[in-house]
Amino acid sequence: MAKPVVIGSRSFSTQGRALDHFKALLHRYQNGQRIVDLADHADLVALIERFDPVLSAVGEPTKGAGQIAHFERRLNTGTGWSSAGFWIIRQDGTETDFSYIDAVKGKPKGQSQDFYNACRQAVALELVLAKKGAFALYGDNHRRVECELTGKMVSIHDAHLDHAWPYFSQIVSGFRAARGWSRDIPDGIISTPADAQTTSTFVDNLVTEAFRAFHHDQAVLRILSREANLQTASSARRPKVARPVRLS
Length: 248
What we know:
The protein is an alpha+beta fold.
């Protein structure tokens, strides 16, 4: 039987129910809106009070339990991505973002996930440009491209650029192995956690360029509809790609 997840005065029968609670809380607000409901504020304070000791134990900066003035929902953006999330505004005016998912799970992202995110950031612009190039090359008169999995014609806004083979995680693992970092990642390779840092990056531009080159040599990309069953897509081994997406 699953162990209850206790956050402040609330007890959730499963971790999934706790995640659903905070997801619903997030979606009750609009981007840029302050969390004004007192019960919602109390739930978020309790979540941070539970998460801060976890962060402290692994040497990461805490979010500031006991120093919180209020919370806001904001849109976090980067090259080729955006997602809504909670931000903490402290009493001294400083502010930072946090993941309610990590906080509920009680598990910071960790070094491997930070490395993966830095790899994503390293090629983010190239992937955006490659997707635009694919629609310019393969698009019909309505600027749509056929989904490789379903055959559905999709617009660029409804499409997903997929790593057909190898998967992006495999490319990241291969790069780590090639650098001798399969077990441990040396200090100073990835940016250290900090306030308002919504994604990790490589500290040394030479590592960034090395991953870009490695990814360029390995990646086989394709266009999928956002509704395509990605689980089914990822189960295929070395799928035939009718319209390969090229990296420049």
